[in-house]
Amino acid sequence: MKKLRFIICLCLLALACEDVITLDLPTEDPRLVIDASIDWFKGTDGSNQDIKLTLTAPYFNSEIPPATGAQVWVTDVSNNTFQFQEEGATGIYRNTTFNPVLEETYTLSIVYNGETYMGEETLKSVASIEYVEQNNNGGFTGNETELKAFYTDPVDEENYNFFEFISDIPAIPSLEVYKDEFTNGNQIFGFYTEEDLATGDIVTIRNYGISEQFYNFMFVLLQQNSEEGGGPFETQPATVRGNCINQTNPDHYPLGYFRASQVDAFIYTVE
Q1: What is the pLDDT of residue 8?
Q2: Phi, psi torsion values for 2, nearest 5 degrees
Q3: Checking DSSP bridges between strand 255-269 and strand 32-41, what pairing results, if any?
Q4: pLDDT value at residue 4
Q5: Alpha helices by DSSP H, the chain
Q6: Given this model, what pLDDT does residue 172 score?
Q7: Rounded to an integer, what distance in angstroms lies between the CA atom of residue 200 and that of residue 168?
Q8: CA–CA dist 123, 56 (Å, integer)
Q9: How far apart are alpha carbons 55 and 66 in whole angstroms?
Q10: Contact 264, 126 (CB under 8 A)
Q11: Are 240 and 217 in contact (CB under 8 A)?
Q12: Which of 27, 134, 159, 165 lies 20 to 30 angstroms, CA to CA, from 39?
């Protein structure tokens, strides 16, 4: 009987101590978020391009608001202008007549909410993925599936690469950046490991040619994700700003980046 009373008291105490905690998080005016990637996939003419504009929102918001009604265009060094038209009120702006040229420098211009944003980038070439090696006994535990996507780095060039591995596990793609400082002219690989990959799973591997400035941007950004020891509630070791500048009000800087890349894609089926 005493034991029963003790259990009842514990339950009542637990119920009495259950409080809803409301976090008073700091807020600021929304900033423009620029997801502008000119991707020229090998085997295509590169004419179809998308640019996505959104706004920052409080941390616990479940939806990301689109930045609608902007004017968006990209200009090359010959002053050819490619207008991007918004699809509905989605914040996604499209162009179907883009003309990609390797080593061409492009300027992105955005007019949104009375402010003008500009960014500049050079379209970089990329080496093709030649083959993929699979190791079923990888990782620290020896139970992970490892994939190595091999490519040959061009000799006598300074190259930077951005790898994206996309599978259903996990839902968020795995991203890595590489530079050829110690591997110039050699065969090297992009690396991916995942414990839950199974035979028959499809992994899309993309290799992007990128500029040095985008490499530096992504290197800092990736160091702050959870897998590298960072997290949303930790103090950021550095402010990560992209290459787009608010020409009207520099203090109201945007987030995101304007990138231009040749891309090689490889579809791999896990064995």
Answers
A1: 47
A2: -65, -40
A3: parallel
A4: 44
A5: 2-16, 212-222
A6: 78
A7: 12
A8: 28
A9: 6
A10: yes
A11: yes
A12: 134
Q: Is the pLDDT of residue 100 over 90?
A: yes
Give the type of residue at 22: T
Burial 205-216 (b: 16+ CB within 10 A, else e): bbbbbbbebbbe
- Contact (Cβ atoms closer than 8 angstroms) between residue 245 and residue 119: yes
pLDDT band at 227 (very low <50, low <70, confident <90, very high): low
Say which amino acid occupies 30: P
| Tokens matching residue 124 | 């970089």
d(CA 153, CA 158): 9
| CATH for the stretch 32-125+241-261 | 2.60.40
Rg (CA), the chain: 23
Q: What are the residues facing 85 on neighbouring strands?
A: 94
Q: Which two tokens stand for residue 198?
A: 């199974």
- Pull the structure tokens for residue 90: 């989605």
Scored b (16 or more CB within 10 A) or e, 257-270 reads bbbbbbbbbbebeb
- The amino acid present at 164, given as its one-letter code, is E
> Distance (Å, rounded) from C-alpha 226 to C-alpha 212?
24
Q: Where are the domains of the chain?
A: 32-125+241-261, 131-225
